[in-house]
Specification:
The protein is built from one helix and nine strands. The protein has one helix at residues 2-169, and strands spanning 173-174, 180-183, 215-216, 224-243, 256-259, 262-266, 273-277, 284-293, 300-312. The longest helix is centred in the N-terminal third of the chain and has 168 residues, at 2-169.
């Protein structure tokens, strides 16, 4: 009996626990049902919202359709109006083209008549000009022959003149006589630089009181110079210096002779005269000849002679 009571008690406890478990599961099912119901409510609300949006979209579509239909009607009316206007323009253009075609035909006829008349006149004029050109051609041929003959004759004359000019200009002669002279240390006592180109170099003794035949610088200064202006561009072949003979010939030693800026020679000993010859294979052109004494000495000479040919232009140099 006790065992049975214990067994019943155990069974009752088990049943109680199962009942409590069932109760808990029932409560859980109720909670789930509440959640499902809330979700259903939310889905219902969303469905209502979607329905309202669908109604709004439907209304917008109806309005857009109505507006499109109105626009299509207006467009068709405008196109009909433009088509009518275009037909009127086409009719006007056809009329203008017809009038233009008639004018072109008339103009073509007038041009054809005028062209035919002018063509005949031009043919006559061309024939006359052709005849005149033939005569002119004969004159030109005849004149050309005469011109060629005269040109040939002129070329021969020019060549002859050129040869004569070259022969004359190549003549070596005294080109310094009576030319202009100058010096940088002038003696005012009658020993002028012009005495070196006066052609008088026979005697250097004083004659008839103050008469002099040689040039003499004022003092023994460094860089005394005396020069001849030739008056043109000449080819220099020789420069001859006549030294004084009565005394002091050593005063000229150390001086240089220049043709323009080119050094021709240097005096290295005291003698009566000096010849500075320019080699034929070293053509030298100058317009001035200068005697330069760089030492502290006098320049006193009887004569300075320049032998050459010319004068020349720069483009006329033959060597």
């Amino acid at each position: 009996k006790q065992w049975y009571q214990r067994r019943v008690a155990i069974t009752a406890g088990t049943l109680k626990e199962e009942a409590q478990q069932i109760r808990r599961e029932g409560y859980s099912a109720i909670d789930k049902a509440d959640g499902i119901r809330e979700q259903a409510y939310r889905v219902k609300d969303q469905a209502y919202e979607l329905k309202e949006e669908a109604y709004e979209i439907k209304e917008s579509a109806l309005e857009a359709r109505s507006a499109l239909e109105g626009t299509l009607v207006e467009t068709l009316a405008l196109m009909k109006s433009q088509a009518t206007t275009t037909n009127l323009y086409i009719q006007e253009i056809r009329a203008s083209l017809s009038s233009l075609s008639e004018r072109l035909e008339s103009l073509e006829q007038d041009v054809g008549e005028k062209f035919a008349a002018q063509s005949d006149a031009m043919e006559e004029k061309f024939a006359a000009q052709s005849s005149a050109l033939d005569k002119l051609e004969e004159k030109v041929v005849s004149g050309t022959t005469e011109v060629v003959a005269k040109v040939t004759e002129t070329q021969t004359t020019v060549a002859t003149i050129k040869n004569r000019q070259q022969s004359w200009m190549s003549e070596i002669r005294l080109i310094s006589l009576y030319k202009l002279t100058e010096e940088n240390n002038r003696n005012p006592s009658g020993y002028d630089s012009d005495l070196i180109t006066d052609g008088q170099f026979v005697d250097s003794l004083h004659r008839e009181g103050s008469m002099r035949t040689y040039s003499h610088t004022l003092s023994r200064a460094h860089n005394n110079k005396i020069w001849i202006e030739l008056g043109g561009l000449f080819r220099i072949h020789k420069i001859k210096i006549w030294n004084v003979r009565q005394c002091c010939q050593d005063q000229l030693v150390g001086s240089h002779i220049y043709a323009d800026d080119k050094l021709i020679g240097t005096v290295i000993e005291p003698v009566a005269n000096y010849d500075f010859t320019v080699a034929d294979n070293d053509p030298t052109y100058a317009s001035k000849v200068t005697l330069h004494q760089p030492l502290a000495k006098h320049i006193h000479i009887l004569e300075m002679q320049v032998w050459g040919s010319g004068p020349f232009q720069n483009e006329d140099k033959f060597a």
